[in-house]
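Moderator note: this is an archived Q&A kept for reference. The question asked for a predicted structure of one protein chain; the sequence and the answer are reproduced below.
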Amino acid sequence: MSTQPAPHPLSGSTVADKLVDLMARDSRNSKPSGDGFDLVVENRKARHDFFIEETLEAGLALTGTEVKSLRAHRANLRDSYARIKNGEAFLESVHIGAYAPAGQFSHKETRARKLLLHRREIDRLNGRVREKGYSIVPLKIYFKNGHAKVEIGLAKGKHSYDKRAAIARKASQREIERALKGRNR
């Protein structure tokens, strides 16, 4: 006597198979999407406050509880920056929330975290930061194939009139899109 399970009533349908696959993959309990990219936090304010001239991907040296907090999306990049000290790059003022199950053994929430970069990348960034008005700001933290990464940008500060111009440009673009949308109906 065979102990095979009964076939699913809709098993012959490809649409049903896709539906079952989608239902089986619950986004809250599954691993990141097939491309291995899982965005944790994005610093949208940085693009408002700075002109981002170039971006760079760097690894992060983290403790276990920090990784678990990042996987729970408990991080904040507001007012954070990168600094180069003694030939090493560090991420400063990044808030990664405490991991509650760790209790008293959890990490310090705003400690300096080492950035994993090649020597020539650090030297190039250091040379650019010495120029007047440049700084290094984190733009986003994400997991790429299971490894925590940060996208940092070489940034130059915006003046208030630059910010006002950008806001006015976005507002006019929105009005144009709204008018075109109404016209096409």
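Archived answer notes: The beta strands are 37-42, 50-60, 75-76, 81-85, 88-92, 95-96, 113-116, 134-144, 147-157.
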